[in-house]
Amino acid sequence: MNAYVGAEKLPVAGDPEREELLRVDNVSLSFGGVKAITDISFDILKGEIRAIIGPNGAGKTSMLNVINGFYHPQEGTITWQGKVRRKMKPYEAASQGIARTFQNVALFKGMTTLDNIMSGRSLKMHKNFFWQLLWRGPAEREEIEHRRKVEDIIDFLEIQAIRKTPVGRLPYGLQKRVELGRALAMEPDLLLLDEPMAGMNLEEKEDMSRFIIDVNQEFGTTIALIEHDMGVVMDLSDRVVVLDYGKKIADGPPEEVQASQAVIDAYLGVSH
Amino acid sequence: MLYDIFVDPFVQMYQMPDFFLQVLWEGFVAGILYALIALGFVLIFKASGVFNFAQGIMVVFAGLTLVGLHENGVPAFLALILTIGVMGVLAYGIERVVMRPLVNQPDIILLMATIGLTYFLIGFGELIFGGEPKRMITEELGLPTGSTAFEFGERGLVILQHIDIAAAVIAILMVTALGIFFNKTRIGRALRAVADDHQAALSVGISLNQIWAIVWFAAGLVALATGIMWGARSDVSFALEIIAFKALPVLILGGFTSIPGAIIGGLIIGFGEKIAELYWGGLVGGGIESWFAYIIALIFLLFRPQGLFGEKIIERV
Amino acid sequence: MFYREAGQFKTSYEKDQALFPIRQDKIGLGVILLIAFVVIPLTANDFFLASIMIPFLVFSLAAIGLNVLTGFCGQLSLGTGAFMGVGAYAAYKLTTIFPDVNVILLVLTSGIFSAIVGAIFGLPSLRIKGLYLAVTTLAAQFFLEWCFIRIGWLYNYNASGAIEIPTREMLGVVISGAEATPLARYFVVLSITVVIAFLISNVLRGRIGRSWMMIRDMDIAAELMGIRPLQTKLMAFAVSSYICGVAGAMMVFFWLNAAEPSSYSITLSFQILFMVILGGLGSVGGAFMGAAFIWILPIVLRAIPSMLGVDIGAETVEHLAFMVIGALIIFFLIVEPHGFARLWQIAKQKLRVWPFPY
């Protein structure tokens, strides 16, 4: 799989040039009595691809949900671009520049591909209700300005042909791609990808990996991804966090993590 | 003004405890009847996820059939048995013609279909039995009439209608019977399986169609009982349809899938609206019975969106 | 054969985003407008205008209003009748308070009041979803109906408890009240309906319409993309109720001439909901088709027995009409749950590829 990872990776870990984009400190989250996340800390640096891995039920998706404000941790703090974040609503996270895709595709099923990606521009469009009523003039100009940006994304993801197709009719692999497009349309600082390659065949995985690398390198977008395919994770990511039963068991560059005894135990199963 | 709202009603309750008890009893009886209608809703919603708007009209339809048959010279008990048969045919017909082709459609489509069914049954019922109100054949069915007055304290009287007592007893018997049916029989177990997961139930060999016909029939029986009780208190007419709306706040309180919830919700609404009407209704010109139940349900929902017996909803993505 | 888009190339995004991007559709719309504004007024008799066209247009507008809320924003409402009533009573009070102001202006203003009321009853929608929300809108329905009965100020303390519409003119033509000709009223109703339908179509294809559909399709994802759920839903409630309010005001001002609280009962709510569902959720054109079906079908059904020369009592016909409507609703839901709008789309698709099946 290494073949298509052309560009050499930038040395990230420990690089003083890189600023911290997001830091999670001692976060714990529980539902009723069930502990989903226990005392986890890690950071995400600007411009890197950060992978979060772990066996099923390790708390990976919950972690993403905490990062984009959908769940509120009982303990711990989240520092976003140098500032400690207060408890907030999910839509505020979006306006601060965090976008994401979902484990089970969460597209707007009744809308076309174009409208789905346009919906990613919602935060950047401001013309009010009365301009919208008239349409001709400012509202139309704004719509077209954003349509151009969206068409760029459509070109980038090579989905021109399905522009006007309702997404409910698309095959799974394309839906995942549209979902990535929708997140990209938000021009996020941090892009959270929840299992972007789940259920894909090899070819689709290669395509998706290429898009992820391109997004990271061309737009400089910081990416945090959850993925089960170890090959993909080891090739794509700069640094990896490993969770197991809601606890962090390893953190570091892929090679280091791969060699860690705790990780091997978690994946192969060891009697505790 | 504040005195009228916050103090006066309670003073009245204290000074005239017999009247207060009478109001409670009225509320109790109304609550039982609401609960019975809600029960019909719950049965069908549990098994098929259909919000059966036609439950109200099934009550009227069952009552009309019973009375109509008797008017045409059929003896009361035979008419009762025939009506049960009619409800069975109706259940089978609904399952075959309406539910089966619409399986797996979104909630709102199924809701609409049951409203269509309501229109159909109104037209059909009126066509056959006429639109004018009819008197329920209470005595002919051997149900008690008349009333007993209990002396209360030194000066008070509380009057209990026998038919109301009978209604309460029948409701309790019915709920018990349904409980036993669901928990102890093979069909009951299949029904609970269907309620949990349609596809899983199908995959272990349970016939959805059969189960649905059975629950619609059970709901039809509940409707018949409700029709008799309610008809005995007023008359049998399509005006009764409006009580079906009252079952909605009851369902909100108790949850759409809980049988005990339906009963407790029914009682809360019954007590709440009678007390509110008689003690507070006068302040705003009366008639608040028409909407008070909904406001209770609305306020309740704001604090507990999952209903009285529902579990807390954890949203997942 | 004649419905082909081959050869029509779009060279700008403006053209691609037009309401009717295909030339044949534009021509079709032009023909319909021509019929509505010229042919019908020239040919139709008073009965057709007053009993079929005016109510049809009023209901179409109300169905568009409900469609904004239920079809586009996904919030089920059973309180449409009451929101229409708020518009009617508000317009009535406004004509009492400002007798000299143009009545059309007042009708359009009255919608603002029902928008406010609608937004208030939309507040619970933040926490309550689906069928549960339907019950809270029932609270609105019954509570508002009670207000129309109990608050004498709303109907100027008339002994009858009903509101009666005063005679008002515009440009020397009587357009409301008992003396207004059906033709004048038809033009007013048609113009208001067409203009509002056009304006709302603009909103629906832009940013705001999209945000409603996002909430409808997947509210959690919408929120994670920066949509404020409460604001968006309340706006849908307000816009929907505005349109319904205007429709309700038109209903009494240009059609019924007088209205009682029972005119705006739960039955009306259901009627409008049927129009929306049968016409097709999320389609402005479908609202017109649904309204035509639900309003005109009973009229036709009632006329059939006398046309066939069969002699049955009026009551029996009424009961039969009820049965047939109920059965047809179920039938159409089974055949095409997405409504007439979808059937129309399928027909167009078939035409486009004709003579091949696909």
TrEMBL record, chain A:
InterPro entries: AAA+_ATPase, ABC_AA/LPS_Transport, ABC_transporter-like_ATP-bd, BCA_ABC_TP_C, P-loop_NTPase
Database matches in SUPFAM superfamilies: P-loop containing nucleoside triphosphate hydrolases
Keyword Glycoprotein on entry: no
One GO cellular component term noted in the UniProt record for this chain: plasma membrane
Stretches that traverse the bilayer: none
Name of the protein this chain belongs to: Amino acid/amide ABC transporter ATP-binding protein 1 (HAAT family)
Annotated ranges, domain ABC transporter: 22-270
Keywords in alphabetical order: ATP-binding, Nucleotide-binding, Transport
A GO molecular function held by the record: ATP binding
Organism (species): Roseibium hamelinense
Pfam families: ABC_tran, BCA_ABC_TP_C
UniProtKB/TrEMBL annotation, chain B:
Species the sequence originates in: Roseibium hamelinense
Residue stretches spanning the membrane: 20-43, 50-70, 76-94, 106-129, 159-182, 211-230, 250-271, 278-303
Principal cellular location given in the protein's record: membrane
Membrane topology classification: Multi-pass membrane protein
Subcellular location as annotated: Cell membrane
Keyword Ion transport: no
Any one Pfam family match given in the protein's UniProt record, by short name: BPD_transp_2
Homology family: Belongs to the binding-protein-dependent transport system permease family. LivHM subfamily.
Keywords: Amino-acid transport, Cell membrane, Membrane, Transmembrane, Transmembrane helix, Transport
Protein name per UniProt: Amino acid/amide ABC transporter membrane protein 1 (HAAT family)
UniProt KW Transport keyword: yes
Domain of life: Bacteria
One example of a Gene Ontology biological process annotation: amino acid transport
GO-annotated molecular function: transmembrane transporter activity
Annotated Gene Ontology cellular component terms: plasma membrane
TrEMBL record, chain C:
Coiled coil: none
Main location as per UniProt: membrane
Membrane protein topology class: Multi-pass membrane protein
Species whose genome carries this gene: Roseibium hamelinense
Pfam families reported in the protein's UniProt record: BPD_transp_2
Superkingdom in the source lineage: Bacteria
Keyword field contains Membrane: yes
Name of this chain's protein: Amino acid/amide ABC transporter membrane protein 2 (HAAT family)
MF annotations from Gene Ontology: branched-chain amino acid transmembrane transporter activity
Sequence intervals crossing the membrane: 27-44, 50-69, 76-92, 104-123, 130-153, 183-204, 234-256, 262-281, 288-308, 320-341
Annotated keywords: Cell membrane, Membrane, Transmembrane, Transmembrane helix
Subcellular location: Cell membrane
Entry GO CC: plasma membrane
